[in-house]
Write a structure and sequence with these properties.
The chain has two helices and 13 strands; from the N terminus they run αβββββββββββββα. It has 215 residues and is an alpha+beta fold.
C-alpha cells in the first residue's frame, strides 16, 4: 500500500488555485466531491490540541485536531462558527473522520491547505464529504491506502465545516477504518432564547408552589 501522492499534489494545486471558491452546501443525505473553501479567519474559540488515537489490528495510530473558529469568512454570516479538523497518520490506515450534532444546522463543507496551528505539511485530500440522512454526522472519506510509506507519515488537508451555528459544546470526533475510536471534540449547539428561560423559570416556580402547598 502507498500514499496517493499524485492525487495529493493535484488536490493541493486545486486548493491553491480556487481557494476563494464557495463549496456547495451539504444537505442531509448528501455526498459531494471535496472542493476548496476559504480558510477560516477570525478568533479561535476552542482547540482540542493534538489528540492521539490507537486502534485495530494491524495497529492504526496518529493524531487528530479540531479547532472552532468565529469565522469572519463564514458564508452564513461573519462570526458564525466553523469546525475544522486535521488528521496526522503515523501507522495503519485511515478511511474516515467524522464530526457530529450538525442535524439542525445549515452546513457548507470543503478543504484547504493547512495554516498554523495545524500541521502545515498536510496535503492529503478526502475523496468525498458526506452527511448522514438525519443530518447529524458529517464525514470526510479517504481512500484507506493513506498508509504512510516506511519511515514517513501522512497528514490531511484542513477539513472544514462552516455552519450557521453561534454556539458550541463538548462533543466527539470519530476516527474510522473498519474499527475506530471516538475522541473528545466540539459540536455546534443552540443557545436557548430568553423566552425559553422565562418559561423554564415559571415552570420551576409553579412546581415549587405546588410542593409548598402540599407540605
Amino acid at each position: 500500500m502507498r500514499r496517493l501522492m499524485i492525487g495529493s499534489i493535484v488536490a493541493v494545486s486545486m486548493v491553491v488555485a480556487i481557494a476563494s471558491a464557495q463549496a456547495t452546501p451539504l444537505a442531509p443525505g448528501g455526498s459531494i466531491a471535496a472542493a476548496a473553501v476559504p480558510n477560516p479567519t477570525g478568533a479561535i474559540l476552542a482547540d482540542t490540541g493534538l489528540l492521539s488515537y490507537s486502534y485495530g489490528t494491524p495497529l492504526s495510530t496518529g493524531t487528530v485536531r479540531e479547532i472552532v473558529f468565529a469565522d469572519t469568512s463564514n458564508p452564513f454570516g461573519s462570526g458564525r462558527l466553523s469546525f475544522v479538523f486535521q488528521a496526522h497518520v503515523l501507522t495503519g490506515d485511515l478511511a474516515r473522520i467524522t464530526g457530529s450534532s450538525f442535524g439542525i444546522f445549515t452546513t457548507d463543507v470543503g478543504i484547504n491547505v493547512p495554516l498554523a496551528p495545524f500541521i502545515t505539511t498536510g496535503s492529503h485530500p478526502p475523496q468525498t464529504i458526506t452527511r448522514s440522512q438525519a443530518g447529524d454526522v458529517i464525514g470526510f472519506n479517504f481512500d484507506p491506502s493513506i498508509v504512510p510509506d516506511a519511515g514517513s507519515t501522512d497528514t490531511t488537508l484542513e477539513l472544514i465545516v462552516r455552519t450557521d451555528a453561534t454556539a458550541f459544546k463538548p462533543g466527539s470526533i470519530g476516527v474510522i477504518d473498519g474499527g475506530g475510536q471516538t475522541l473528545s471534540g466540539f459540536v455546534p449547539t443552540v443557545i436557548p432564547e430568553p423566552g425559553t428561560f422565562l418559561l423554564l423559570g415559571g415552570g420551576l416556580a409553579g412546581i415549587a408552589a405546588v410542593r409548598s402547598r402540599r407540605s
